[in-house]
Write a structure and sequence with these properties.
The complex is a heterodimer of chains A (90) and B (267).
Chain A lengths: L1 H6 L8 H18 L3 H16 L10 E6 L4 E6 L5 H6 L1
Antiparallel strand pairs in A: 1-2
Chain B lengths: L3 E6 L7 H14 L4 E5 L7 H4 L10 H5 L5 H4 L1 E2 L6 E4 L12 H12 L4 E5 L6 H7 L4 E6 L3 H16 L5 E8 L1 H5 L6 H8 L2 E7 L3 H8 L11 H13 L12 H15 L1
Parallel strand pairs in B: 1-5, 1-6, 2-4, 2-5, 6-7, 7-8
Antiparallel strand pairs in B: 3-4
C-alpha cells in the first residue's frame, strides 16, 4: 500500500520524528532571525504592495519563507509573475 | 599542567546536566585525571546527592567566595576515587551570591593542582548561567532529542557565540535507538545539522541511570555494565583527545553519513 501510495504521488503522513525536525527548523529560523510569524506576514504584505506597483504579480501565490543552511538563515520571497499564460488561465 | 575548565549547560532544565557532570567527573578520575566538579546551581544543589557525597559537606562555594573558609576546606574528596573532588553549592542562598568574577577566581585557584574542573551550570540564561560559563575554556551543551530541548540549546549556543566564549561541543542525551529507528524521535544527524556545532557524545536512555541516582553511585563507576556508562567513558576519552567512534543507532549507511557530516564540520 505504501509503495502504491508513493507511485500515485500521494504524500505519506510524516513520522513524528520528521514533524519534530520540520517544526524545529522553522522555530529556530524565527528565533535566530528575531522575526516572528506576525512580522513575516507584514513583510509579505508590504513586499506584495511594493512589487505590485511596478509589475503584475499573483498575490495569492506569494510565499515568504526561511531557507536555512548550517551557518546562515535566508529570507526567501517567491513571487509568481502574472505572465500572459497565467492570466489566460485565471 | 594547568587544568581545563569545562562548563556543562543546556538552557532547558531536566535534560541531564547534573547526571552528566557527575559521570564525566567519575570517568575522568578513573582515567587518572585530577578532577574537581563544581555545583554552580546555588540554592538548588544536587550534584552532591548524584555523587553520594551529601553527608560529607562542611563548607560550600558561597563560603569560599565570602571568605568564611579556604578553598581546600570546601572541597569534598570522594572516598572511592582519591583524585575526585566536589565543590558543593550553597543550599540556603540564591544565585545573586555569585558573580562571574568569583567563578573565574575560584577556577584560577583550582587550575594549578588539577587536570579538569567541571562546572554543573544551572538551567536558564540568567545570572546562574552567566557565572557558570564565565571561567570556561570549553562548553559542553547537553540536549535531548526533542523540540523544546534543541530549541533552548540553540539559544544557549547563540549567547555563547555572541559573547565569544567556547568553543561549544554537543552532547545528545537520552536517545532511544528503537524510537529513532521507527522515525518517532529526532535523529542524531538532524540535531547536529540543526545546531551546527561539533558532537562529542551520544548517551542512550538507560534505566540504570535512575538506579544509580537512587544509590548515589554514578554509573560510570562500572564502565562496562550499561550502555549509558560506556557512553560517559567514551566522552571522557574524547575529552582527553582520543578518537573514539560514536555508538551505532541505525544501519551503517546512515551512520556513515553521520560520521562524514561530523568530520566535515570539524574541518
Amino acid at each position: 500500500m505504501r509503495l502504491l501510495g508513493r507511485l500515485l504521488g500521494r504524500r505519506e503522513p510524516s513520522s513524528s520524528g520528521e514533524v519534530a525536525r520540520e517544526r524545529l527548523r522553522l522555530v529556530l529560523a524565527h528565533d535566530r532571525s528575531n522575526i516572528s510569524p506576525a512580522l513575516l506576514d507584514t513583510l509579505k504584505d508590504e513586499i506584495i504592495t511594493v512589487i505590485s506597483r511596478h509589475v503584475a504579480i499573483d498575490a495569492e501565490g506569494v510565499e515568504v519563507t526561511f531557507s536555512q543552511s548550517a551557518h546562515e538563515t535566508r529570507l526567501v520571497a517567491d513571487i509568481p509573475l502574472m505572465t500572459r499564460r497565467g492570466r489566460r488561465k485565471g | 599542567m594547568a587544568a581545563k575548565v569545562l562548563t556543562v549547560t543546556s538552557g532547558k532544565g531536566g535534560v541531564g546536566k547534573t547526571t552528566l557532570t557527575a559521570n564525566l567527573g567519575v570517568a575522568l578520575a578513573m582515567q587518572g585525571q585530577r578532577v574537581v566538579v563544581i555545583d554552580a546551581d546555588v540554592g538548588l544543589r544536587n550534584l552532591d546527592v548524584m555523587l553520594g557525597l551529601e553527608n560529607r559537606i562542611v563548607y560550600d562555594l558561597v563560603d569560599v567566595i565570602e571568605g568564611r573558609c579556604r578553598l581546600r576546606q570546601a572541597l569534598v574528596r570522594d572516598k572511592r576515587l582519591s583524585e575526585l573532588f566536589l565543590l558543593p553549592a550553597a543550599q540556603t542562598r540564591d544565585k545573586s551570591a555569585v558573580r562571574p568574577d568569583d567563578m573565574v577566581s575560584v577556577c584560577e585557584s583550582l587550575r594549578e593542582q588539577h587536570d579538569f574542573v567541571l562546572i554543573d551550570s544551572p538551567a536558564g540564561i540568567e545570572q546562574g548561567f552567566r557565572y557558570a560559563v564565565a571561567p570556561a575554556d570549553e562548553i559542553l551543551i547537553v540536549t535531548n532529542p526533542e523540540v523544546a530541548a534543541v530549541r533552548d540549546a540553540d539559544r544557549i549556543i547563540g549567547l555563547i557565540e555572541a559573547e565569544e566564549q567556547g568553543p561549544a561541543r554537543l552532547i545528545i542525551n537520552r536517545i532511544k535507538p528503537d524510537m529513532v529507528r521507527r522515525g518517532e524521535m529526532l535523529d542524531i544527524a538532524d540535531v547536529v545539522e540543526l545546531l551546527a556545532i561539533d558532537l562529542i557524545g551520544i548517551v542512550p536512555e538507560d534505566q540504570a541511570i535512575l538506579v544509580s541516582a537512587n544509590r548515589g553511585q554514578p554509573l560510570a563507576f562500572s564502565s562496562d555494565s550499561s550502555s549509558a556508562g560506556r557512553a560517559f567513558h567514551n566522552i571522557a576519552r574524547r575529552l582527553l583527545g582520543e578518537d573514539v567512534p560514536f555508538i551505532t543507532l541505525r544501519e551503517p549507511g546512515v551512520l556513515e553519513k553521520l560520521f562524514r557530516f561530523v568530520r566535515s564540520e570539524g574541518d
